[in-house]
Amino acid sequence: MTAQTPPTPPFRDARLPFAKRIDDLLARLTLDERIAFLHQFAPAVERLGVAAFRTGQEALHGVAWMGPATVFPQAVGLGATWNDDLVRRVGEAVSTETRAMRARDDRVGLNVWSPTVNLLRHPLWGRNEEGYSEDPKLTSAIATAYTRGLRGDHPAYWRTAPVLKHWLAHNNETNRDTSSSSVRPRVLHEYDLRAFRETVEAGAVAGVMPAYNLVNGRPNHVSPYLREHLRAWTDQDLLVCSDAGAPSNLVDSEHYFDTHEEATAAAILAGVDSFTDHGTDSSKIVERVQGALVQGLLSETDIDEAVRRQLAIRFQLGEFDPQLDPYADLTAAKDFDTPAHQTLAQEAAEQAIVLLKNDGLLPLSEDARIAVVGLLADECKLDWYSGTLIHRSTPLEGLYERFGAERVDFAEGVDRVRLRTSYGTYLSVPAVGEAADEVRGAEGALDPALLAGRTDLPPLTADAAGTELALIDWGEGVLTLRAPDGRYLSVADDGYVRASADQPGGWVVQETFHLEPSGSHENGHLLKHAGTGRYVSVAADGVKVAAENAEIFELEFAERGEDAVARAAASADVVLVVAGNDPHINGRETEDRTTLRLPAHQERLLRAARDANPNTALVLVSAYPYAVDPGDLPAVLWTAHGGQAAGTALARALAGDVSPAGRLPQTWYAADDDLPDLLDYDVIGGRQTYLYFEGTPLFPFGHGLSYTSFAYADLHIQQRAGALAVSFTVTNTGGTAAGEVAQLYTRAVDPSVPRPRRELAAYRRVHLAPGASADITFELPLSAFEFWDVALDRPRLEPGAYEVLAGASSEDVRLRTSVELDGEPGAPRPVREHGLNAADFDEQRNIAIVDHTKVSGDAVTPVDGETGELVFRDCEFGDGVTGITVEAAGEGVVELSLDGGPLITTLTLNGTKGPYDYTTLDAEITSVAAVHDVHLRLRGPLRLAHVGFSG
Question: Which residues form the CBM6 domain (predicted)?
Fold first, then answer.
């Protein structure tokens, strides 16, 4: 008798819709198997032939953490290109390499955690390099382009499944897991949600990752916004992946829940589908979910809903249809590190360069003698989310290649020192010796993969001669020390100091030190290791960091960096000072910056070069803006860390082979005093970003110069049903082919509420030959002119005059016209019928928005429990009210006045059991009729949720 082939289960039947196949597979999984799927590392189900699955593969500007890959410019650099098509192609290349790398290493995941769409509201944010722009329109457009590239264009199957980071209002590293972003409704809808919404609605997003912080007093991982907003924007099954360790933070650091079972259940009910916690160990999460089930905090249906969304992504990635997966044939042999990817990396780096100032010094003449100086002059820096470089190009190397090494002089500008011990000996770096061949590659370059954290290399010693070290001062008292052969001093797990790192790096940077004055020695210093907090000591078995016996060192300078820079500058025709940051130091994930200023040492190098040679250009290579004084500098140029082709791209731009056409994706402020507090998320009330900033920026949003000139003409507007058609012409009026970014802004002329000074509505990057013109046309939906009306709790188009402005930046407006738009007239708030939700204020002073309950809603409280004020404009009381009711919790006083006049009544709350134990207070008032502004003053640590009026 012939054995029959078992029937194909429906979840394997590619003829069926994904939804039916997911239903079938879900029904075949046991409860324990489904629970196990909720962890980041979902195990295989061998009896069904289902493979293991891991959510999460970093791919911000190339495949990260998985070894060599093509490295593109940092995300903020991609934002500076203002080029959607280019960024889409970068996304295609990154996702192609992800697939190709997975073909040889199944640790590479296809659920990519990228891009970061957090708005660059505050330039001191340590992760500024990860975002695209301070503007929601530009951010969402670039993010949409990148996700479309990551997703691919097949109607059913995805090349990779991108997850947006980090939901929501996350723009600080300081206390990032315990701080709360107070976000008023207008800021929430017009600013923070908008960048996510427009990208999700474009249809190429697989999901989002909640941020570590709290928003309005509630952790993002239990935010009702996931259901109320995110999942309301699309019919697609979006996967919500937690950030690493964040589920445990709900109890451990945030103390928002008493037990992990409560916290885990609340996160699942809010919409979290995949828990990134405890590394590869899923047992904790499994135990917590099971406990929540036993306690009745969750149902199997809740678990199924989360697993269903995860399975939807896996089906879209072709896991269950390998024979139909259009991307299954991508392999490392033919689709990885291709010539096309190398060319694209250079194109992206070139387009990211922004010319900030130029008095004619650039482009460089072909016969110029060039001095290139500075700490970044011969560096190609990586960041935390970079892959390992296959190719590398530093500014110095790029200039050598473009102009010839004989015409380029180099001075790094580091201080060169010997460290003298209290015994009269000097710190000495042992030669690598027999390990040299292992440490260095075929061309003699240091291999970072081999060097990082090595314990087999000999530790430093002390001897009579010592070793001259490069002391590199990064500011904030942080320095690195480098041996003559390029190895950085580092501390391994055993505590010994070795010259064993190619670059500073790692989650905890082990290559950074602090010099502290020694109280017992006039010229002595203690050398403190930043990674461990311990001091360097000299022992018989080598130099180490220890809790005692700190060595006292004297610094003996062989050469000051300023002297080397001045010497190189004096003999050159043109000086290029390459300054900026190391992405692992003084501003990175877990660490915000403290100032906009360049480190003092780099300022000294810049001044030394400028004093020696007036033809000095500042080339900033950095992950964020700086406040620099360009007054006596003939040229200033900025680029983010540009990946593997950074140096080649920079040299080509400096030489004029390409004309810089990048534009600033965020405001560059002139001084720290221009900045709001890092935790002030009210961009409207705090007058933040180019949208509201009323000062004079150092360089405005959208700014960028060219080696040619462009003229704008013939601005026309045509009103259509539900939209405006806007057109104008841009002409290259100079003699150089170049790119221009035509920018369109709008402005409400006489708004009833504070509106942006101007707001980006559309943009287009075009490349024009000399004398050539481009006709630019945009269609603006009338919704682009709406604002969030807190009285109506929805968007509203206010009727009236609006300006439409076209130009080269937010401040360089070349054309303008106005248009009258019909809309919905405003009306006073019907407070007699609906009262006032406390968080729907028009103005506030010293007020924070907090959670009404742990599940939903907002309330307000005075900052630090002191005194705060709320203003609600144009409140309609009809023919009169004689009573007021407040819903509040805690302890304190609520005072009511109208129109800034005298106090009408006071309500005193004597204390409730807890912050969510609300009670109702009421009082009689003298009859109030007609329309008034309501002023509420809150005194003490109370929470106010709602105010009602009666009578």
Answer: 834-950
